[in-house]
Specification:
mainly alpha; extended; 2 strands; 5 helices; single chain; two-stranded parallel sheet; 152 residues
Length: 152
C-alpha cells in the first residue's frame, strides 16, 4: 500500500472514530448526565462469568429497574483479559436487544491500573504511598477522637 493511500486510510479511520465519539458525547449531553446522577444498580459475585451469563444478569436487572441509559465498565478486569472480554461481550450482547444503551469504557480506572503497574516497583512511589496511608490513619484517629470526645 502506498504511503499516500495509508495516510488517506488513517485519516478516514481517525475521522470515523472521532465521529463515533462525538455522537456518544452528543447523546450524553442531550441527557444532561452528571457523575452524581449515576447509581450502582446491582453487584454480583461469581467465580466465572461468561458473556452470556453477564448478558442474562443485565437482562434480570432490566426487569427489576428498567433499561439503563449507560453502562460504564472497564474492558479488562483486574489484569485478566479473559474476564474483561467476557464483560465486554456480555454488554455487547445486551446492546443487541437494547441498542439505545451507551457502553462507556471506564478509562479512569484503566489509566489508574496502568499507572499503578508502572509505579509499583518504584521505591520513591512506595514511600509516598506509605506516607499517604500513615497520614490517612492519623486523620481517621483524629476524627474518631473528636467524634467520641463529643459523645462522652
Amino acid at each position: 500500500m502506498s504511503l499516500s493511500r495509508q495516510a488517506r486510510y488513517f485519516r478516514k479511520t481517525r475521522d470515523n472514530w472521532k465521529n463515533k465519539a462525538q455522537d456518544k458525547q452528543d447523546k450524553l449531553r442531550a441527557n444532561d448526565q452528571k457523575i452524581r446522577d449515576g447509581e450502582i444498580l446491582g453487584i454480583e459475585v461469581t467465580e466465572s462469568a461468561t458473556g452470556e451469563r453477564i448478558e442474562k444478569t443485565l437482562e434480570q436487572l432490566t426487569q427489576k429497574v428498567g433499561i439503563p441509559r449507560q453502562i460504564v465498565a472497564e474492558q479488562r478486569s483486574c489484569g485478566y483479559a479473559s474476564r474483561g472480554s467476557n464483560l465486554k461481550k456480555g454488554i455487547e450482547l445486551y446492546q443487541e436487544k437494547y441498542p439505545e444503551v451507551i457502553y462507556t469504557y471506564d478509562v479512569t480506572h484503566g489509566m489508574s491500573n496502568l499507572l499503578k503497574k508502572e509505579l509499583e516497583s518504584d521505591r520513591e512511589y512506595q514511600n509516598f504511598l506509605s506516607d499517604c496511608h500513615q497520614y490517612i490513619n492519623v486523620f481517621r484517629l483524629a476524627v474518631l477522637s473528636k467524634t467520641f470526645g463529643r459523645c462522652f
